[in-house]
Structure formats: structure tokens, C-alpha cells
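ok so i was messing around last nite and threw this chain in just to see what happens. nothing serious, just curious
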Amino acid sequence: MAVSVEITRREMIRPTVMAASGGGGEKAKLTAFDHAATDGYIPAVFAWHGAAAAAAAPSNDAIKDGLAAVLARFPHLAGRFDEDEDQRGRRCFRLDDAGVLVLEAAATADLADALAHDVSAHVNELYPKADKERADEPLFQVQLTRYTCGGLVIGTACHHQVADGQSMSVFYAAWAAAVRTGGTTLPTPFIDRAAVTVPRCPPAPAFDHGNIEFKGEYNRSHSYGTLPLEKIRNLAVHFPDEFVVGLKARVGGRCSTFQCLLAHAWKKITAARDLSPEEFTQVRVAVNCRGRAKPAVPMDYFGNMVLWAFPRMQVRDLLSSSYAAVIAVIRDAVARVDEEYIQSFADFGEAAIGQELSPTAAGLGTMFCPDLEVDSWLGFRFHDLDFGGGPPCAFLPPYVPVEGVLIFVPSCAAKGGVEMFMALDDQHVDAFRQICYSMD
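result:
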């Protein structure tokens, strides 16, 4: 079904004056973790049905008022990028309360009908098209789209060097609480970026971070090919709770939902790709470093605190090994992102001041095959994303233009489970669909 979306209003929302904490225009340095994050905007789109909770659904004005209230506690979102003369022109934050761009829009459809049909056909019209090349571009942007039934879709675009997924989960929950309570419930997140990456004196990096977290001459990203975008198929796989329980029983020991689903997906995608048994395959796994650093960083720290692990196996071994064995490989790789590694990375950030550092984020059309890249939003607090009409009925993934990317998201369905959103080479999709629920 064809759905048109019309932008009806554009407005810059600034933090509530009474509570604003960063409006002096002070500058704040990006950490090494910020510099390693994708230099681009990450969209997120959530939907709420209109009919079931129309009486409690907040107005656009209430949502914007809650946003203004909570931005006072998250000044980086309302700031802008600038240059830091003290760090040889490196990018920094300008905490000037310049504001968040909010678009209001109307869709010519019933939300339930749109969700039941091919919502992917218009999902890219449901969030702002931020452009990192535009001067003074807002770092966080919002679109509120109302459907004919009263249903609401909130689409956002946030520059990744402002915050990681853990941080945005905290922010979204805080925003929703501010709307529900009329701005009376506001958090106090930890926002001192200088305190979370303290280098040694002198800095002593012990690992090759320039080629691991950044796109140095020997980074593996240089070996990846490209695919025409029309050959990269986005698909969603729903894993019910009972499937996850069965998978954990197959493992035979303690394992997290993320570990067992990653092991399963790695096996099945590799089989569907029909790779040579002698070839090697690896997964780039995002690792939250908050609890791994010493001293530990508060879980409500707002910023980036992610590094990556790289479990690697020969195709023959991956396909023939038990789930328990594959999970052990994943665990071992993640365990290497420890206190020593994190400190080394902080030291590297200090030693590399003045150097041109490019994040390893993949460009449009990149083909990771034989590898994968995975991110987990399983800790995302969807149940807390209640603006007054209940939690969202759906998370709508935008188009992913990179082959081999996996994202695990908790299902919004009443029966729970996990959604796996992924992008594969079109020629491997049918084979994957045939085996994706097989535990053999």
C-alpha cells in the first residue's frame, strides 16, 4: 500500500531555560571512544498504536515539552560540533543549547494497516534526514508522525559520536518519563567525559589500535568488497522465547540470549553463504566497556563506551562445532576486551592527538562476507519507552545498506522473543531462510 508522509512543521527545541546546564557555549572534548564511533547519524523508529490507548496518548506539544525538560540533563544532544584549538583542530562539542530539530508530520494511512503491509516501503520517510556535512547540523533530530487512526511514530536521528546505544536507551526512557510526569521526573546521568578515559602519564598503548578501532593501513576493512544496493536484502527473523529456551538447552550450560543467538546466526549465515571449508570467518562484536573499565564507569554514563571483539573460526570448524564450542570462542574474544585493553585504548587516544583517525564504519554497499558485524539492543529498555500510552507496539528498522550486519532487538510482540534484523546478499537469502530455525 502507498503511504505518503507530509512534513507539516519544523521547530528547534531548546532545553528548558530554568534547568539548562550547558548553555554557556563551553567546549567539551570527544573521548577516544567517541572518535572510534561511526561518524554519521543513526536512525531509530518506534511506533505506538492509536486506538488502544488514544485517551492516554500524549500530544505533540506534550512530547516536545518533555524533550525540552530532559535536554537540560543531556546537554550534548542540544549542542553542536566545533573544533578544539587545544587539540590541533580536532572535533569537539560546543555545549551551547542550540537545540534539537523536531519535525511534525502526517501520514495518509492507518498505522495498523501500514504495519500489516510493507512498512519498509516508507520507513525512511519516518525519521529526519540529517546531513553531517551541513554546517551547524543539529546532533539529535526528531520526527513525530501521526497516522489517520491517531497512531504515532517517533523517528530519531542521532550522531553516533554523541552517544552509543546504551546511552540512548537511558535518554529515551528519561524522555518518556518526563512526558508522563509533566517534567517533574528528570534523571541525573553521568556526563563527565573527561573522567571516563584517563590516560596514563606518559601514555603507553600496548595494542595496535590504529588498525583495530581505526581504519589504519592494515585494518581488515580494506579487504571487503562491495555490492550494488539492490542486491543487499534486508530481512527480519523472529525468534520466539521457546526457540531461545530450546537453543540454550542445546548449549547445555549457562549462556546469555545474545551469545546463543549469535552462535546460531553465525553458523546458519555461514552455511547459507556456502563458503570454502578452509576459509576463515570472524564477527565484529560490540562490547560495552562500562563495567569492564577500572574503575568501572556508571551504566548511566552518557557518551560512547564501546570497543569491539573479534571471534574468529575456520568455516569447517564453525559448522562442525557444537553450540557450546562456538560460544566459548565468542566468550574468549569478548574477555580480551578487559581492563588492560581499555586502558591501552585510552592511552592511544592521548598519544594520537593531531593524527587523522578514521572510524572503521562500513560505507554504503560494503560486503562483509565472509565476516559479520553484530550489535545487540537486547538491553534496550523498550518497556520504559512509555510516553503515556504504553510501550511501543513496534520497532521499525531503517534500511541497512551493508551486507553482513546483524542487530538483535527485544520483540515488542505480546509474546516476547527476539527480533534479528539483518542484511544479506540477495543470493544467500533463500538458503538462509530454509535453515534459520534448524538447530542441526
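not much to say yet. Residues 61 and 67 are 10 Å apart (CA to CA).
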